[in-house]
Amino acid sequence: MLGDEVIFGSSDKARSQQISRWEKAGTIRKIAPRIYTPDLSAPPEVIVKRNWYKILAHLFPGALLSHRSALEFKPSASGEVFITYKYTKNVLLPGITIRLIKGNGSVEGDVPFYKDLYVSQEARAFLENLQSSRPKNEDPKTLSKAEIENKLDTIIRIRGEEGLNVLRDHARAIADKLGMQKEFEKLNKIIGTILSSNSVADISSPISKARLSGFPYDPARIDLFNHVYEQLAGNEYPQFEDRNVTIQAYRNFAFYESYFSNYIEGTVFEIEEAKEIVLTETPMPSRDEDSHDILGTYQIVSNKREMSQCPNNPDELLTILRRRHSILLSARISKLPGSFKDKNNRAGNTEFVDWQLVQGTLKKGFELYSILKNPFAKAAYMMFMVSEIHPFLDGNGRIARVMINAELTSKGLSKIIIPTVYREDYMGVLKKLTNQGDPGPYIRMLLRAYEFSSTIYGEEMNDMEAYLKRCDAFEEPALGRLNFNKIS
Question: Backbone phi, then psi, for 64, in 5-degree steps?
């Protein structure tokens, strides 16, 4: 049919003549032997790659997508697809190379993939990937040992240790049928090592090594942190000196820092109410927990000594986070102040790091933080890392903003306030970075907030408040716009 992107030659005379007429009329074109397309503009390799599974099902009915292709479900980086079939042969098409491997066809438990094309069941695929592979100039038919370990580690994260044991039982059951007893012994040894606390000497994957050390991490988040690091490490950023050098000026700034940080999270007070709570250190009886949130945040961010402490190693990072969280949420006992989360949390469609991977992901993420040099870059990285991991049941946004400002205070630089009017910009770019992996908008947003915040200073709290009002800082995002350039 002309509605399909790929059309296959046919032994049926009428169908063959129809295809010939379409080709002569310029309605379709030939892109490979007995393969045509009505797309007259896209390169043949692009069309073939988009339709690789349809082509396999047509050319090799009953074939089994196997080896690395059965775990990756796509052509390899160099465009190779591996299938088990009746004979061994290489078939070259634009954009892909089909590598047929003679072997056992589908057995009970193998899965229909597309029409007459099957895919090796999970246990079989792992066994296939533990066969010896002797590549020359092409990709090997098997994944590396480290890649196999990473995939086994993913099973633990999603299905738990029981899921890995079930996989091993399935592999044991089919190994005899397929003549893969040697491969099963390899798999059994790897799984046994991963599930034990033995030496990591036989493990190749950094992820699995981290798990065995007691600190497994989230590899997808580490990849994202790498993107942020690469963007930050390659640029120079301004350094705005902190003008609030006296104790009073630093505390004035800290009050508005605390007020806005809580406002972002939905802890909303009138500005005079918040002042009364902070100045008297007395919670409002009708809003005891919310009042303590304001007090807890202020207690941290007004203490210049506390805000000058930054982690020098991964263990210090964990200690500082827990200490600050215990102060911030001291009144919310159900939120485990000072303890990392004991269950998963999410915001909308965003699932944050699994609670069992929090400490390992923080420790692994610290490695990139530690080699950043520019103070703004370190601060921006730290805030996103904490926000993205979401290590606590509550208070994660506030703790992330405490951490960014501790980085800046420790270098004598202006702290950053995210005012109410800038809340949607702030939340929007964080979400975009999480979902799309583009650090650019996040960094630009933070630089603008940094520059704005450097203009907030003074010995009088009321004067500071008047300035913030002129900047529309207290306005809801729909009613104002952060504007400080035009203020004389």
Answer: -120, 115
Helix H or strand E encompassing 38: none
131-166: pLDDT as tens digits: 987 655 567 999 999 899 989 988 887 788 899 999
Considering its fold, how many domains does the chain have in total? 3
The answer to the question of residue 107 being in a domain is: yes
Instruction: Print the domain residue range for 355.
Output: 219-470
Q: Is residue 485 part of a domain?
A: no
Percent with pLDDT over 90 in the chain: 74
- Give dist(CA 203, CA 269) in Å, integer: 54
Classified as helix, coil or strand, 421 is helix
State whether 319 and 238 are in the same domain.
yes
Model confidence band, residue 487 (pLDDT cutoffs 50, 70, 90): very low
**Is the alpha carbon torsion for 340, 344, 345, 346 positive or negative?**
positive
Spell out the residues 6+ positions from residue 180 whose beta carbon is closer than 8 angstroms to its own.
Answer: 127, 128, 131, 174
Q: What distance in Å separates the CA atoms of residue 46 and residue 30, rounded to the nearest whole number?
A: 14
Alpha carbon 160 to its chain centroid, in Å, reads: 20
Helix (H) or strand (E) holding 113: strand 111-114
Residues of the chain by 3-state class (helix, strand, coil), percent to 5: 55, 10, 35
Q: Do 200 and 206 meet the contact criterion of CB atoms below 8 Å apart?
A: no
Place of tokens 């061994």: 88
Residue 136: per-residue pLDDT: 59
Contact 93, 55 (CB under 8 A): yes
Examine the fold and report which residue of 196, 212, 228 is the final residue of a domain before the chain moves on. 212
pLDDT value at 321 more than 90: yes
Q: Are residues 426 and 357 in the same domain?
A: yes
Q: Report pLDDT for 1.
A: 58
Confidence category of residue 394, pLDDT binned at 50, 70, 90: very high
Question: Counting Cβ atoms within 10 Å, is residue 25 exposed (0-12), middle (13-18) or buried (19+)?
Answer: exposed
The two beta strands, 64-65 and 117-119, are: parallel
Alpha carbons 452 and 442: distance in angstroms, whole number: 16
In this predicted model, what pLDDT tens digit does every residue of 278-312 receive, in sequence order? 888 888 878 888 888 889 999 999 999 999 999 99
Are 239 and 206 found together in one domain? no
Burial of 330 (0-12, 13-18, 19+ CB in 10 A): middle
Contact 468, 419 (CB under 8 A): yes
Kindly state whether residues 168 and 293 are assigned to the same domain. Answer: no
How far, rounded to the nearest angstrom, does the alpha carbon of residue 102 sit from its chain's CA centroid?
Answer: 39
